[in-house]
Amino acid sequence: MKYVNAKQILPDKLFRELQGYFQGGYIYIPIEQNRQKSWGEVSGYRRELQKRNAQITENFKAGVSVEKLAEKYCLSVHAIRKIIYQK
């Protein structure tokens, strides 16, 4: 997250109004709900995990054991089972 000086981006009237409520600190202004990106959408990590999980499922269907998959992907047996049996 990048910090921006409010004086540089807000109209003077709004800036002075904000100073009446809050001075010398940081204010977080959240993104509107309808504009917010879902987890992993920006970094692409969600796609990576989906691709990895698809490979795990394909390998399991091809006959690779849960234990071998856990070892290969450095995950627990429980995590592999959750990936394989998710709906």
From TrEMBL:
Family annotation (SUPFAM superfamilies): Homeodomain-like
Top-level taxon of origin: Bacteria
NCBIfam families hit by this protein: CD3324_fam
Protein name: Mor transcription activator domain-containing protein
